[in-house]
Amino acid sequence: MVRESAMRRVAVVSACVVAAACGRPTPTTTPTPAPVAAGRPIHTVVPVPSSIQVTPTDSFQIDSTVAVVVPAGGGYAVEGIATYLTNLLGGPAAPPPRTLAAGEAMPPRSIQLALDPSKSTLGLEGYELTVTRDGVTLTAAQPNGLFYGVQTIRQLLPWSVEHRAAMNRRLLLPAARVTDTPRFAWRGAMLDVSRHFIDAEAVKRYIDLMAVYKLNRLHLHLSDDQGWRIEIASRPNLTAQGGSTQVNGGPGGFYTKAQFADIVAYATSRFITIVPEIDMPSHTNAALASYAELNCDNVARPLYTGTKVGFSVLCVEKDSVYTFINDVVKDIAAQVPTPYFHIGGDEVEKLTHDQYIRFIERVQDIVTANGKQMIGWGEISPAKLAPNTIVQHWRRDSASIHVARGGKVIMSPSSKTYLDMKYDSTTTLGLRWAGLIEVKDAYDWNPATLLPEVPETALLGVEGPLWSETLVKLEDYEFMAFPRLAALAEIAWSPQGARDWETFRMRLAFQGPRLSALGVNFYRSAQVPWVTR
Ligand code: TNX
Q1: Domain ranges of the chain
Q2: Known catalytic residues?
Q3: Between 512 and which of 54, 296, 437, 530 could a Cys-Cys bridge form, CB atoms 3.0 to 4.6 Å apart?
Q4: Is pLDDT of 16 > 70?
Q5: CATH architecture designation of domain 2-180
Q6: HSE (side-chain half, CA atoms, 13 Å) at 375
Q7: Ligand 1 nearest-atom number relative to CA 309
Q8: What confidence score (pLDDT) does residue 166 get?
Q9: What CATH number labels 186-493?
């Protein structure tokens, strides 16, 4: 346990292979595994960077005299990231970033953010960070990389950085050299806002927490049997009727176009791509209750507030159903300027195999015609899929068929990544059909070796779905997501060889007070030696 009075020491703590390395001048490097001694890690960054050296004896002091500096012409995105950093260091009242004129010398003791497109090995999302006692330089080829470098700065700082109000404080950033690029391009989280609805502010908070761990895709499950959650101009009943309830009959809700645009813009500012899902042809009771013509018998279904699956289905033989789907896809495609459209496609019990396959292929044409790349749950694999359609694996399904045709897969194995599964038998929230998932279970697996016919080269990445049958409020979502979402983030970002459970759980221990400072209701797993204040 580390006490409050040791707060400032924590920066040093996180920079030392404690006891062992404090005072030892040679830097310690990962990924040589397990830089842990006397119970404390050399640094507490999650996800662990692909290469990091920390010099425990040295640090850069951040106080009110330090400037965050961006070069002139750095562009809007870089200025936005610099402002995000100044807010992080000193709250909204902190001095704004300084723009350096061409040829102007770097002020002493500054934190410099620079784009250098010639550093192509850093790719879209990589960054280099150098911290000495005299200053900080963060370089990336693209703004995305700068944003992730800022998150690493954040996590190298003590957790008190998460208390934004303190302006005249000193924060010690340990001297370090980091070169870091992600393992996977797709580092996702999914929120089921259909079974229970959470408002746009709650989604934005989840986005902020994703950003801390360098996640970059937020898949929103926007429709299901219990609720339709996004406004479609040509079909107002979808939200007026279909959005009016939720599991157990609560008030439900939906995002207006303005609110959804706000979510998209907020996510974009955190380098997170929104992936909208409209689940079909099953999981559609909310739509079937809103428009009678979507049913084969032309009778609107009653609203549904239970938790069964598989019973609802669109009338796939009717052309008007495809007109409906096109209207929905077109409307959402215009609301989300990002490349993907997720069609669900899971748990269909009321169609023949041939009907199902024909449906998926027809919908794929609609999605493509609207300029989007289709994603579907594993069941869609046997259909004739375009190579750039993406399959999201979740249980014993057929992702390997898609891999054989050169297609890409997102790994969401339910027994590892389903954040709605209980941690252990005492967890009151959540389900248990895919098993109990403790933090170690969520962390200690390799997406490239889970399915023999789905190798690393076929993987776009990983995603942690959070289904909300039992989750009512944001605190419930947070409890199920944290800390397992941090575990998933490390799987998605860090090289397999740079991570192991023992060092992860030690670093995670130091994320506890950080999450507390951020007000996150997280699960205090007994597997983690939590550091408390
Ligand atoms: C399976 S995963 C589902 C969801 C449920 C979830 C509950 C998937 C594609 N379908 O409809 O909410 O299990 O864990």
Answers
A1: 2-180, 186-493
A2: 347
A3: 530
A4: no
A5: 2-Layer Sandwich (3.30)
A6: 24
A7: 11
A8: 57
A9: 3.20.20.80
